[in-house]
Design brief:
10 helices, 2 domains, about 325 residues, 60s Ribosomal Protein L30, Chain: A, alpha+beta, Phosphoribosyl-aminoimidazole Synthetase, Chain A, domain 2, homodimer, globular, 4-stranded mixed sheet
Chain lengths: ~325, ~325
């Protein structure tokens, strides 16, 4: 398949949605962002971030867009468009698989009103997806940075944790699947393969006055440390309060792992971690479209994170698989 | 070198320039774009778009940003920021080379007021640069699309053509260098390795009322056909009027190639091709910061491009090296 044919194929599948004045087909796309553009970019590389053996191209399309929308969600922003750069190994990806990849992306884009507004396609030594996403601040609400947290703020997470790490265990060790009912195993694997970005929750938390926020891509412990350092505070994370997704305890146990540590250090949940003033926590919980669970606090002290067990003793957490040597 | 160390290293080198409210270090960057964001993305892949043997990482950093700024130039837009995604083969690129890559990018960014505002770094099987650039429309001037050309418009190119193709010939066949004086050969090689995006010319042409515009990345013949098809017109390209860069004729002759065909079909000049109403051509030439040369016209007829030789006879042009099978 030629690049030109492929670009036409992709252009024919990309639906233009409100906010995109000009999409695929010119030198650049034009996006209505209302003064400030919120922009982010992530790469997914075959053999580093995914394996073709355990990831369909449809799921890959979904996930590549999802991780970028998650970054916009963590700013409390409304996503508008994405640019999709694609390296394809010659002969390595069929036309049908490319269609599936874009179908996975378009299905997620449709749910969030996002337009695939441009990008690039080229040959390359492995399948690489480079996605840049552009959003705009939600009406009347400033973007929420990592650095706005203050001593005394409550740290809250959306949804539940550990599902992606448990799902990855199930994908890599199928013999563990007996630990949970089939539908639960399916949901855990789906959490890893097709994470749902918390776009609505991010906007709701921004409206509710969250002072700092980020998305949990590398585990709440590491991402919590990042938020704390950016805010010049010490984060205290109470492991016993971490909300575990259904089935995580059973899969962790079957794998000989500690469930709370798996939830704290396992990456790719793409939930949000927010620092919220104590008085704003209850209103934020009522306004959120998903569970919002207090898991710790910011306090004065050396910037970083301390994890406590149920007895209040400090716990060392192993680093997750988030950092690749390059 | 770890990803984290590398990201810190890169962050320390990226200077934040006006228009970027928030740069590297959060989930996303914040850019002042004034209502409409102009966004584009290009990938450069080792072994496909460049060879490490003939390209320094400093030049590569320059070129990867330059091709994106060229796309913004072709919209008549003012560049604001870039997101830089980088795949690094383990052990394949030293820290000093990464520094050089960003130094090349920053030097060009400085000249155009652009901030490297974010991005991603990861391991990967080859060196891949995925850059997304964001700009804003020049004050009071709507972005110039490919589709606005009309029958009767004059097709004009900025600068001179063929320099990049001749420079690539010199890089691949060093024995040809004797065809031109050393400084001329240096300029031709530089045109290939470090193309200068026509940002100011693009904005000047937009102000001068250019009706359609694109950047010449794949040769004026192919890009002219694209402009013509988008505008629903037939482009007539007069080969004898193509402005040849100094030394192109001599290098082409030494290589046994026809210079005008090389200039018409050779890619990567990153000059601009604009469709301009006849009455606006002279004012546009006076207002442009570089030579602006009429090379043909748009007329009614089947959308596409016809190239004519000096005698007015139609000429078949071979396709350039712009399309890679994937």
């Amino acid at each position: 398949m030629s690049e030109l044919a492929l670009i036409e194929r992709i252009g024919a599948r990309a639906r233009r949605r409100p906010g995109t004045e000009l999409g695929i087909g010119d030198d650049a796309a034009l996006l209505s962002v209302g003064g400030t553009a919120v922009v982010t970019q992530d790469l997914l590389v075959e053999g580093v971030h995914f394996r073709r053996a355990t990831t369909s191209t449809r799921d890959l399309g979904h996930k590549a867009l999802a991780v970028n929308l998650s970054d916009l969600a963590a700013m409390g922003a409304e996503p508008v468009a994405a640019l999709v750069g694609l390296c394809l190994p010659p002969g390595g990806v069929s036309e049908a698989e490319v269609d599936e990849l874009y179908a996975g992306m378009e299905a997620l884009a449709e749910r969030h009103g996002v337009t695939v507004a441009g990008g690039d396609v080229t040959a390359g030594p492995a399948l690489v997806l480079a996605i840049a996403a552009v959003g705009r601040p939600s009406a009347g609400v400033a973007p929420v940075l990592r650095a706005g947290g203050r001593s005394g703020d409550v740290l809250c997470v959306t949804g539940a944790l550990g599902a992606s790490a448990a799902g990855l265990l199930l994908l890599e060790r199928p013999e563990l699947a007996g630990a949970v009912p089939g539908p639960v195993a399916d949901r855990l694997r789906a959490a890893h393969l097709r994470p749902e970005p918390r776009v609505e929750a991010g906007r709701a938390l921004a409206r509710a006055g969250a002072r700092a926020m980020l998305d949990i891509s590398d585990g709440v412990a590491l991402d919590g440390a990042r938020l704390a350092r950016a805010s010049g505070a010490r984060a205290v994370l109470e492991l016993a309060r971490l909300p575990l997704a259904e089935g995580v305890a059973e899969v962790a146990s079957a794998a000989g792992r500690d469930a709370l540590r798996l939830a704290a250090a396992g990456g790719e949940d793409y939930e949000l971690l927010a620092a919220i003033a104590p008085a704003a926590v209850e209103p934020a919980r009522r306004g959120a479209p998903c569970p919002l669970t207090p898991v710790g606090r910011l306090e004065q002290g050396p910037p970083g994170l301390v994890a406590l067990d149920a007895a209040g003793a400090a716990v060392e957490l192993e680093a997750g698989g988030w950092e690749h040597d390059v």
